[in-house]
UniProtKB/TrEMBL annotation:
Keywords: DNA-binding, Phosphoprotein, Transcription, Transcription regulation
Annotated ranges, domain HTH luxR-type: 134-199
Protein name: LuxR family transcriptional regulator
Organism: Ectopseudomonas composti
Limits of the Response regulatory domain: 4-118
Length: 210
């Protein structure tokens, strides 16, 4: 899928220069001069990120961000603003922004941020169709089965899991076999791959040497 950058800024000069910068590195910019127009036209499933100005007439950037969340538009947001006071920056990041860049911006800094946002977005766009099946199986697990699943896929032994949950090793064995059966996993590595693909655990959280 083509990578897109939605650029939302009421300053036409800034909008034009940003589009030119993006096009100079092969990225397609899609311009909007108002937050409302962007919300009505954007594709929530696109391989895209959003460059969003904070202060615009009518609907400001933070309000656009809130409306995106309400509409389940989960595109990475990079705020660009000449008025980056701390409360605004904190509010933006707390609501999920991936970056906040002050105007006038450094061109390379902006491009680096856009590329990182697009890389972050790409896995969600490239989801394996089998992932829905994996998620459905995960949803069928009981709370106790999940309690056993998570430490197991992070590399803990059955005995360590038993100590963590204050149950017997034999009980852990029982739950482990149930989890493998429910998840339709032939091996622990296959189970680990499913859990990582579903985003249930961060690969960096795994124990070294396991």
């Amino acid at each position: 899928m083509q990578q897109l950058v939605y650029v939302v800024d009421d300053d036409q000069g800034m909008l034009d220069s940003t589009l030119w910068l993006l096009e100079s590195v092969g990225l397609k910019g899609v311009p909007f001069t108002s937050g409302r127009a962007f919300l009505e036209a954007c594709d929530a499933t696109a391989n895209a990120c959003v460059l969003l100005d904070v202060r615009m007439p009518g609907m400001g950037g933070l309000n656009v961000q809130e409306e995106m969340r309400a509409r389940a538009i989960d595109l990475p947001i990079i705020f660009v603003s000449g008025h980056a006071d701390v409360p605004i920056v904190v509010r933006a990041f707390k609501a999920g922004a991936v970056d906040f860049i002050e105007k006038p911006y450094n061109e390379q800094l902006l491009l680096d941020s856009v590329q990182q946002a697009l890389e972050r977005r790409a896995p969600a766009v490239r989801q394996d169709p089998r992932l829905a099946d994996v998620q459905a199986r995960l949803d069928q697990l009981t709370p106790r089965e999940r309690d056993v699943l998570l430490p197991l896929v992070r590399g803990h032994t059955n005995r360590e899991v038993a100590e963590q949950l204050d149950i017997s090793v034999k009980t852990v064995d029982l739950y482990r076999s149930r989890v493998m059966k429910r998840m339709q996993a032939e091996s622990l590595p296959e189970l680990v791959g499913m859990v990582i693909a579903a985003g249930l655990v961060d690969p960096l959280a795994f124990r070294s040497g396991t």
